User: Fold this.
Amino acid sequence: MGCDEAAKNGTDLQSVFDGVDLPDNTRRVYSAQWHHFVGWCVTRASLARPARALPARPRLVVAYLAALAEGGRSASMLRGACTAIGKAHELRGFAPPTSHPIVVAWRRRLIEAGDQESQKAVELTVAQVAQMTAAMSADLADLRDRALVLVAYAARLRRSELVGLDVTDVVFRDEEIELLVPARRIIIPPGRHQHTCTARAVRSWIDAAALALSGPLFVGINRWGHLGGRLSDRAVGLIVQTRARKAGLSIEGISADSLRVGSRDERRLL
Assistant:
């Protein structure tokens, strides 16, 4: 497939989920996942590699999942990608390539590898997260980092999911917020204290930074306080370690994944 044909094919396939009888959030999540896959296929085709998104060959789907895993995407995002790709094929009358044994086997292997990696991280407790956020001030970088830490901890997000959030992925509902993460939506209840309330922290960051609705939720900030582009995966780890150290915690074993490992139930105490 040539570059022009691939681009045209990609444009035609973007509307697969338009008007489909699905809940709004589900349709939006499927559409986002599918658009990403189609875009990846277009890019791959531009490198003179076979990459037809629909119908997709099983080995192409495996290559896509491997690319997601290498980019630090979470197990839930891999599952979500498979669901969206499979659903798109069903809607167009094709057998889902995600049901092929080779895709099933590779998906399981990649998800297990990601789970093992996150298990190496030292867990951060509610008390430690509260200690970290309490040590932050009201300047721009602190507002961003408080929101980042609380969102990642309360929603158990991986780095790739966290930095992939856009402002439009956050829906405020009274004192709680809803995150529209690919393949799922997450409701975060209000915090028990001002410095541990995720909704308050995110709102304060968005307002203080005057973030554009169409832009990323978490961006870089230089030494002069000027906003940059979307944060990288690596930057999240550095932020978590820096905030832990400033709060008087040992940073040995602490990484970005420390915000997502541990008990789900304990997080309700924030």
User: Anything to note?
Assistant: Residues 1-11 have pLDDT under 50 and may be disordered.
